[in-house]
Amino acid sequence: MNDPAVDHNAFVDSTRLARIKHFVDKHYAEPLSLQAAARAAGLEKTYFCKYFRRKTGVGYRDWLSRIRVERALRLLRERELTITAIALEVGFADLCTFERAFQRCTGHCARTIKNQFWAPQRRNTS
Q: 1: closest CA among 74, 81, 59?
């Protein structure tokens, strides 16, 4: 899922954004506050929000949700877990928030994706 709204080059061109990406890659499954991300970038929270949006084209929280949804997509395909377990494993606080973010990022509900991948495999093993 490569979102055209996000300027992915910004994470290569900016040392601060590279640090944020590294921080989020390591800690995406944990509760990540805006303050923690700003600290990782070495910026004040209010300036961090403006800086992140100006450099990447999206807000930090939207970007973080997209990262988590990308990880969830991988888990939906690789492991037969419940959707709730996947949502919690990638850092969403609850299923409702996960479903909204998943639908917004992919255009599909998580159950549809899971069924597309796992239902044929279940039929083949029966």
A: 74
